[in-house]
C-alpha cells in the first residue's frame, strides 16, 4: 500500500529534480551571457537567484518535516540525508552561476582571451558534469556517478593549465593584468561548479551503495558490480 512516507519521499525527489533543473538552467544562462557578452541574460541569472534560494528553504523544511513525522531507516534515511546534502550543493551552484554572470560586464571586451586559454571548453565539460550529476540522482545511476567523479580530475588538470597560462600572459604583458585577474576569478568559479557536481555524484553513490566515498583516491576500485545492502 502506498503509505505516507513513500508519498513524502516522492515529493522530495520531485523537488530536488526541479531544483536541479533550475540550477542547470541558471548555469547555462550564465555561461551563454558571458561568452556572448549578453548583459540582459547575465542580469536574468542574478534576478532569478531568489527563486533558487526559495527552493532551497522549501527542501530543507520538507526534510525536517519527514524526520519529525516519520522514522525513516535504511534507503529511506539515506535518501533524506542525500537530499539535504544535494540541496546544499545545488544552492551553492546557483550562487556560483550568479558569480559567473557578474564576470560578464568586466570581461565583455575580452572574450577572445577566454577562448585563447580555453575557458570556454572547460565550461562545456563542467556543464556536462553538472547535467550528468543531476541525471545520476534522477535515475539512481551509480555508474554515471563514478564517471562524473573521474571526469572531475580532467577539470582539475584544465584548471591548473589555464591558470598557468593566465599567469604567463600577465608576466609578458602588464596591460592584460586586469583582464587576466577577472579570468582567474572566473576560472575558480568554474572549477568549484565541478566540485559541487562531484559532491552530488558522491551522494548518489552513498544513496545506491550505502558507502561513503568522499576523498577516495582509489576510485577505480569502486567501479565494480553493486553489492547488496
Describe this structure in words.
This protein is mostly helical and 229 residues long. It has 9 helices and no strands. Helix 1 runs antiparallel to helix 3 and helix 8 (142-172) runs antiparallel to helix 9 (177-209). It is globular. The model has no long low-confidence stretch (mean pLDDT 92).
Residue runs with pLDDT of under 50 for 5 or more positions? none
Strand content: under 5%
| Element pattern in H and E | HHHHHHHHH
**Strand elements, count:** 0
Helical residues, percent: over 70%
Number of helices: 9
Structural category? mainly alpha
Question: In angstroms, what separates the terminal alpha carbons?
Answer: 23 Å
Q: How large, in whole angstroms, is the Cα Rg?
A: 19 Å
The whole-number mean of residue pLDDT values reads 92
Based on Cα principal axes, name the global outline. Answer: globular
For the largest beta-sheet, the strand count, sense and barrel status come to: none
Provide a brief overview of the structure.
This protein has helices spanning 4-35, 39-47, 49-69, 74-102, 104-107, 111-116, 119-138, 142-172, 177-209. With 229 residues, the protein is an all-alpha fold. It starts with a helix and ends in a 20-residue tail after the last helix.
Amino acid at each position: 500500500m502506498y503509505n505516507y512516507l513513500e508519498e513524502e519521499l516522492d515529493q522530495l525527489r520531485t523537488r530536488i529534480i526541479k531544483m536541479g533543473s533550475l540550477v542547470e538552467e541558471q548555469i547555462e544562462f550564465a555561461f551563454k551571457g558571458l561568452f556572448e557578452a549578453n548583459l540582459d541574460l547575465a542580469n536574468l541569472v542574478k534576478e532569478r537567484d531568489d527563486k533558487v534560494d526559495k527552493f532551497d528553504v522549501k527542501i530543507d523544511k520538507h526534510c525536517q518535516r519527514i524526520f519529525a513525522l516519520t522514522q525513516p531507516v535504511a534507503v529511506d534515511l539515506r535518501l533524506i540525508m542525500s537530499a539535504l546534502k544535494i540541496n546544499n550543493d545545488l544552492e551553492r551552484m546557483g550562487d556560483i552561476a550568479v558569480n559567473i554572470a557578474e564576470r560578464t560586464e568586466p570581461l565583455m571586451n575580452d572574450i577572445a582571451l577566454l577562448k585563447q586559454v580555453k575557458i570556454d571548453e572547460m565550461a562545456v565539460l563542467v556543464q556536462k558534469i553538472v547535467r550528468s550529476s543531476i541525471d545520476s540522482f534522477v535515475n539512481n545511476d551509480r555508474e554515471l556517478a563514478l564517471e562524473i567523479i573521474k571526469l572531475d580530475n580532467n577539470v582539475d588538470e584544465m584548471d591548473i593549465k589555464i591558470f598557468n597560462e593566465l599567469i604567463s600572459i600577465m608576466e609578458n604583458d602588464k596591460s592584460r593584468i586586469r583582464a587576466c585577474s577577472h579570468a582567474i576569478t572566473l576560472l575558480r568559479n568554474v572549477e568549484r561548479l565541478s566540485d559541487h557536481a562531484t559532491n552530488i555524484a558522491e551522494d548518489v553513490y552513498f544513496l545506491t551503495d550505502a558507502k561513503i566515498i568522499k576523498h577516495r583516491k582509489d576510485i577505480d576500485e569502486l567501479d565494480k558490480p553493486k553489492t547488496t545492502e
